Amino acid sequence: MKQTESVSGRSPKRLRPPSSVGGQILDDVVRASPNVTMVNFPTYEGQCDQPFTAVNGGRCYFPSYDLVKTTWKEAQVICSWLHPKGQLAEFETLQEIVDATGFLINDNSTHGWGSVGPWIGAIEKGDSNTFIWHSSKAPIEAHNWAESRPYSTTSGDGVALDASDNFQWIDLSSGTYLPFLCEIPSNPRPDESEDKTEELERRLREVEEALRKVFKDIDEAEKKSDAQTRQLEELAKRFPCPIGFLLVGNSCYAVFDKDSDKRSWDAAQAFCRAKAAGGHLVELETKAEIALLKTHMKGNDYYRGSGCNYWIGGEEIGASNAFVWASTGQHIGDSDWSPSEPNNSGSGDAIIVPCYSTAPGIREPFGPCKPPCSSQSTRELP
Fold first, then answer.
1. CATH of range 13-190; options 3.10.100.10, 3.40.50.1000, 3.20.20.70, 3.30.230.10
2. Of the candidates 35, 84, 104, 241, which lies 20 to 30 Å from 354 by C-alpha distance?
3. Burial of 259 (0-12, 13-18, 19+ CB in 10 A)
4. pTM of the model
5. Are strands 59-63 and 323-325 parallel, antiparallel or unpaired?
6. Distance, CA of 179 to CA of 158 (rounded, Å)
7. Would you list the domain boundaries of the chain?
């Protein structure tokens, strides 16, 4: 049976066959395959289930000695009775041959084997004198045949270990009554399996802890985001206008009436755009908006005398004397023109609102800019 011959945390030892005739036989086996490095691992607690014996190299064998003798086929059955995975021993590597042969040669049991025995798990393929391992049907590669073996003339022979000749292999009729050698897979090393289990549990704990932290961070981030959203909503309610603008009705306005604020219509429009996203000179699209802004201007004392005027966002189309709102290109509908206005004979004129006038429809000073959501500000004529 093939066994895993590397053990975590343990260094393999070089195999040192016992100093005896049997040891010489093992030396001969090793020398037969000079390219193979022989190693040996000691037995460990819990290596084998009862009634199997732990053997170096992680092997588990049950020797029947000469107490029980049977045919090759019946020996296979008895091995399976001893353990669900029991079978006649199969040596698929040179290392297994050395481990098993060393165990048998150095066995101190008070029981013997008789002149021949035990059976192992190799069987002849028909009458071909070619042998295979029973469980895998794989041909025998590593072997320890006695001199001139195999040579039996019968068909379907079994393979036995000659106890009288240092357990070298011989082929015999499978119906011969002989002792037998059973094997089962070994159990994992306790420390190895425990270490793997502990390591797996440790990693699982780390993963669980990491997941808890991730979920906690996500939950806290969501709570923080919700709190920030509520704060922004509150701020939007308390301060609906950009900095420097005032809420008048449903719109935000900023009026610039200092001498330092005076500039051309184009410069005033650019100034308004820079004050707030989407800002522009005010565009008074309804009579209600016109009246509301006039009231605001009057209530905040933007009166500057007859020389004071404010730009608003209306501009002429060429020399047509037709005006549109600059941000949309929409023709001006509701308006508050002074009598006889518009009347400038030039081209590309813009609209102003005087600070003071007795003309009907122009009663208070104003003129503005408008970002999205109806924010507005005003500019003065230079």
1. 3.10.100.10
2. 241
3. exposed
4. 0.46
5. unpaired
6. 13
7. 13-190, 246-380
